[in-house]
Amino acid sequence: VLDAAFGGSAGGDGAGGTTIAGVAEAIRTYQPRQVILTARGTSDHAALYAAYLTEIRLGIPAGLASPSAITVYGARPAMDGCLVVGVSQSGGSPDLAEVLRVAREQGALTLAVTNAPDSPLAMTAAHHIDICAGHERAVAATKTYTAQLLSLLLLVEAVREPGSVPEGLRRLPDLARTTLDDPTAVELANRYRFADRLVTTGRGYAYPTAREAALKLLETSYLAALAYSGADLLHGPLALADPDVPVLAVVGSGPGGQSMQGVLERLGARGADLVVIGPVLPRSSGASTDGVRAVARLATPDVDERLAPMLDILPLQRLALAVAKARGVDPDAPRGLAKVTSTL
Ligand code: F6R
Fold first, then answer.
1. Taking a C-beta distance cutoff of 8 angstroms, is the pair 58, 106 a contact?
2. Could you tell me whether strands 109-114 and 197-202 are parallel, antiparallel, or unpaired per DSSP bridges?
3. E runs forming strands in 181-272
4. What is the pTM of this model?
5. Which residues contact 88 (CB under 8 A, 6 or more apart)?
6. For residue 171, what is the DSSP state?
């Protein structure tokens, strides 16, 4: 992805930039008033991460589109002056291509971020970024999710400051290896073998991780996994938390993690069966998880909050895999999911 960012080639219809740096330059020139992202499933979680990045790092309002407004209701929201981004590993779902086609017709700047340069989505957009993940064999997307996060991070940072690579990024492969070496996630699977409900939570950059973890557990292990931002959890769904319902909380050392402190306390007060995902943080830090009573910790390295989603998802993917195996179901043949799902 780093090669593609600054030297390799990317597709699109040839009208625009062909590297992350080139696309970033086109975005800087266009100066979008808003960024609209469109995606499904796992890719939607990568898009959500990009929305946080766009608002926090670029100060541009960002949000997720509702494809059905365009494809089912025939709406034509005014998208001129907007950057419209389709995120999809396959680039194959017709609704996303249709959103980009309409956006282009309306004068928006369009971008596809996919693992398939020849896909309909890539062909429809003015610009395309190839996430360069290689063939994704798993039906439930895993490595393409990481590559989407990385590509979107590089893009946003390049829009903010041409040529910049976030500090610590090059250490990620080693840190990912260390994270994957930890057997705790696999050990934890036995505890949740018979669980039928589960809640995941996180805030800011960690919220897409909570959503993606819930999706992976749901689609491969068939347990009802609900994801809430730490804030939304306190607006009612906290009622679900009790000693019989596992809660997986993603808590880092940055502002997102710090904002989870009150949530962790409320979960503790309800005697929740709590698992904390993230670095072990000392009591002296603003986001201490040291004093929290948790049944387990899935420890991940303490890195910049923007990089953490690429590491925090790893033990959660492993947990989903191990729970599926412990339940005797095949995570490579999820009963509700195809490699490419077509919706309109
Ligand atoms: C989840 C999963 C699906 C896809 C969704 C979108 O593991 O694989 O939810 O993420 O079908 O697919 P793409 O990214 O190909 O548009």
1. no
2. unpaired
3. 197-202, 224-229, 246-250
4. 0.93
5. 39, 40, 43, 96, 112, 113, 114, 119, 121
6. G
Which two three-digit tokens encode residue 295? 């049944």
Give the model confidence (pLDDT) of 200-258 as tens digits.
Answer: 999 999 999 999 999 999 999 999 999 999 999 999 999 999 999 999 999 999 999 99
Residues 6+ away with beta carbon under 8 Å from 177? none
Residue of 149, 216, 337, 342 to mutate, ligand 1, most atoms within 8 A of C-beta: 337
Give the pair of three-digit tokens for residue 229.
């931002």
Pick the residue whose CA is nearest to atom 16 on ligand 1: 88
Q: Ligand 1: distance of its center to the CA of 162 in Å?
A: 31
Residues with CB under 6 A from ligand 1: 40-43, 88-90, 92-93, 140-141, 215, 219, 337, 340-341
The two structure tokens encoding residue 246: 């596992």
Cα–Cα distance, 324 to 113 (Å, whole number) = 30
